[in-house]
Write a structure and sequence with these properties.
DNA-binding, 2 domains, two-stranded antiparallel ribbon, 5 strands, about 40% helix, about 20% strand, about 140 residues, alpha+beta, homodimer
DNA sequence: AAGATGAGTGGTAATTATTACTGATACACT
DNA sequence: AGTGTATCAGTAATAATTACCACTCATCTT
């Protein structure tokens, strides 16, 4: 979004960015759409997708390709890891120190040009755990 | 597939399993379908999906929820990490020692019941790198 | 200020991956 | 052989995402 000077900071982009910045929940495109629609009721879902994609390409937000069926987006771009609830699907940050060195390790043993890595933990979040208890 | 005794080892399941075992390429459901179809031309895509899902639930194969748009499947079930080519999308194993201990670390600092983790490296595979060179 | 240019938008259609449904098979057990 | 049920092939339906297109609106040019 800052890469090409022709790229405009439209109202839609500004609000998408603001709303994404308000939450720490790694919303899906549809969830961002719902959030943004409260302020811009006529915005199109395609606009949200297009701009989330664009912003992630230019690096001002993060696109999370975690498990589950939907992509998720994150306004926090400094490297960090995630944990996903296998029951409800939500994704939280997890404060494990980032291992910068394993990229080099990976580069040494593979034929790939290694560009990055991501760790995704999986488990059951406390809410889902509580719900499961309640049923028993 | 060995969990419930009612579950039959049909020809379809046997061949899906055999074909998946032959490759190390983490094929998508569609790729498995193509492989299997050479031996069982009349098999349905739904059957492939159904059985891959089933086998991953019972733990005899692994379902990889890596980046990209498709799920991938792996006959190697012992824990290991993966690297994905950002250019062509293929997924390879990467021989980095599995860190059993970080699950505990994660459990300590999060409210989740941590069940596992997966590391996905991303980069450019040697083939794509070569192709890029050729263009320049 | 008016017109041209082109990025961006909203609405909708199309695509892709996956799942669900359905009637037909085929095995297992009597 | 007859019945019950798992599984199948084929197809329809769903979900997420992307593509398309006519129109809007900044920005630039005269």
């Amino acid at each position: 979004m800052q890469l090409t000077p022709e790229m405009r900071l439209t109202t839609q982009r500004q609000i998408i960015l603001e709303e994404l910045g308000k939450v720490t929940s790694h919303p899906t495109a549809n969830e961002v759409y719902d959030m943004v629609r409260k302020r811009l009721p006529r915005i199109g879902l395609g606009t949200v997708y297009r701009n989330l994609e664009l912003m992630s390409e230019t690096g001002i937000i993060l696109k999370l390709e975690v498990g589950g069926t939907q992509k998720r987006f994150d306004a926090t771009i400094d490297p960090h890891y995630h944990i996903r609830c296998l029951s409800c699907g939500k994704v939280d940050d997890i404060e494990i120190p980032v291992m910068e060195d394993i990229n080099k390790t990976a580069a040494d043993i593979s034929k790939y040009q290694v560009l990055g890595h991501h760790i995704e933990f999986s488990g059951i979040c406390s809410e889902c755990n509580d719900n499961a208890q309640a049923v028993n």
